[in-house]
Design goal:
- The complex is a heterotrimer of chains A (about 130), B (about 130) and C (about 100).
- Chain A is of the alpha/beta class and about 130 residues long.
- Chain A has a domain at about 50-130: Hypothetical Protein Ychn, Chain: A, CATH 3.40.1260.
- Chain A is about 25% helix and about 15% strand.
- In chain A, α1 (about 30-40) links the parallel β1 (about 15-20) and β2 (about 50-55).
- Chain B is an alpha/beta fold and about 130 residues long.
- Chain B contains 5 helices and 5 strands.
- Chain B has helices at about 15-30, 60-70, 80-85, 90-95, 110-120; strands at about 1-5, 30-40, 75, 105-110, 125.
- In chain B, α1 (about 15-30) links the parallel β1 and β2 (about 30-40).
- In chain B, α1 (about 15-30) runs parallel beside α2.
- The two termini of chain B are about 25 Å apart.
- In chain B, about 50% of the residues are buried.
- Chain C has a single domain (about 5-100), classed as 3-Layer(aba) Sandwich (Hypothetical Protein Ychn, Chain: A), CATH 3.40.1260.10.
- Chain C has 4 helices and 5 strands; from the N terminus they run βαβαβαβαβ.
- Chain C has a 5-stranded parallel beta sheet with strand order 4-3-2-1-5.
- The chains are: A alpha/beta (about 130), B alpha/beta (about 130), C alpha/beta (about 100).
- The interface between A and B is medium-sized, with 25 and 23 residues.
Chain lengths: ~130, ~130, ~100
């Protein structure tokens, strides 16, 4: 079985549309952080990568996280660094924000807010959904 | 059709068994299983040390047997493995640990293996919690 | 637009996962209930009517029977399947998403 080396992009064909669906709150488990690690790894492979924050995943976007108080790496800070990795297709579920009473002022502004119909369309237009 | 599986669940979750049932079914239908990638708590699958009672399933042994029969690539995320104490001989030396516990048939490798499996496969099915 | 096979493994009596999944459901999508998700095949939970309205809804037979859920007690709209059929559905649907 062929094994590509880390960061090796030469074995890849046309870019695939990959959507990471992030549904987990940031600190209760390491799943949110693990998803971000997977996203950063994916950024090295020149795929058509995007991220959708839905359900409790929208809590990852809240500004003013002081995660050092619970000895955790700051998820919001990692998210703010995504443009450095050329990860710019960020989407958030409007209904999930509204349900939790989160206003846009409380989250990062470089993100596209999707109404339910647009979110359903985004999900259906991928080659793979990565569920976190 | 080419499949890869992503497994994030620990030994206590039924989804461990579901993932195996799915892998077994797809292989019996003649499809290809390109890679099984164990991430997050799924990394615990890679240790040969768990000793379940004789009347319970040894999940690691079951994956090993399936991998041997069908030449499947079983990859433990190295970062997830190291955090959880799943080491091969090389990592044990690197971190100056006296023991290592990676089961035969599994390899430790980077998250790029998940990306590569996703891109190379027609289907990626996730089993978690 | 590709149809999505949604895979749900939590009980609707203890989590809103099933609702969260169905909120993102397109008309031609499919739903598989497995593990504790098969409690979603019962008729008493808050989203049971929504499940009945799904055209292509499936539940894993062994997960139902293991939990003592009689196949007679679940909605007629839900098809009971085994893992061979599960694999076939993941081929038929171009995309899958696991809700957990």
């Amino acid at each position: 079985m062929m094994m590509a080396a880390e960061g090796n992009t030469t074995t890849m064909n046309a870019p695939k549309k990959l959507l990471f669906v992030l549904r987990q709150a940031p600190y209760g488990s390491t799943l949110a952080k693990d998803a971000l690690d997977a996203i950063l790894a994916t950024s090295a492979y020149e795929q058509d990568l995007s991220i959708a924050f839905i359900d409790d995943g929208v809590f990852q976007l809240i500004n003013n996280q002081q995660s050092e108080l619970i000895d955790q790496k700051n998820i919001a800070r990692i998210l703010s660094a995504l443009p450095l990795y050329d990860i710019t297709q960020l989407f958030v579920c409007a209904a999930s924000l509204a349900e939790r009473g989160i206003t846009l002022g409380a989250i990062s502004e470089d993100i596209t807010v999707l109404e339910p119909e647009a979110l359903r369309t985004l999900l259906s237009q991928q080659d793979h959904l990565l569920s976190f | 059709m080419i499949f890869s599986l992503a497994i994030y669940s620990s030994l206590s979750a039924q989804s461990q068994d579901s993932a195996y049932q799915f892998a077994h079914a797809l292989l019996s239908q003649g499809h290809q299983l390109y890679r099984v990638f164990f991430y997050h708590d799924g990394a615990y699958q890679g240790s040969f040390l768990p000793c379940p009672p004789q009347d319970e399933t040894d999940y690691t042994a079951r994956w090993q047997a399936l991998a041997k029969m069908h030449n499947i690539d079983l990859v433990i995320c190295i970062a997830a493995g190291l955090r959880r104490g799943i080491l091969d001989q090389r990592e044990a030396q690197r971190y100056e640990k006296a023991q290592y516990n990676l089961a035969d048939g599994f390899t430790l490798s980077g998250l790029g293996q998940l990306v590569e499996a996703t891109v190379q496969s027609d289907r990626l099915i996730t089993f978690a919690r | 637009m590709s149809a999505i096979l949604h895979i749900v493994n939590q009980s609707p009596f203890s989590s809103t996962l099933l609702k969260q999944c169905m909120d993102r459901f397109n008309n031609d999508d499919g739903l598989i209930l497995l593990e504790d998700g098969v409690y979603g095949a019962m008729s008493q939970h808050p989203y049971a009517q929504n499940v009945r309205n799904i055209k292509r809804c499936y539940a894993i037979k062994n997960d139902l029977l293991a939990r003592g859920i009689s196949l007679d007690d679940i909605s007629d709209s839900i098809q009971v399947i085994d893992y061979d059929e599960f694999v076939q559905l993941t081929i038929e649907f171009p995309l899958s998403h696991s809700w957990y």
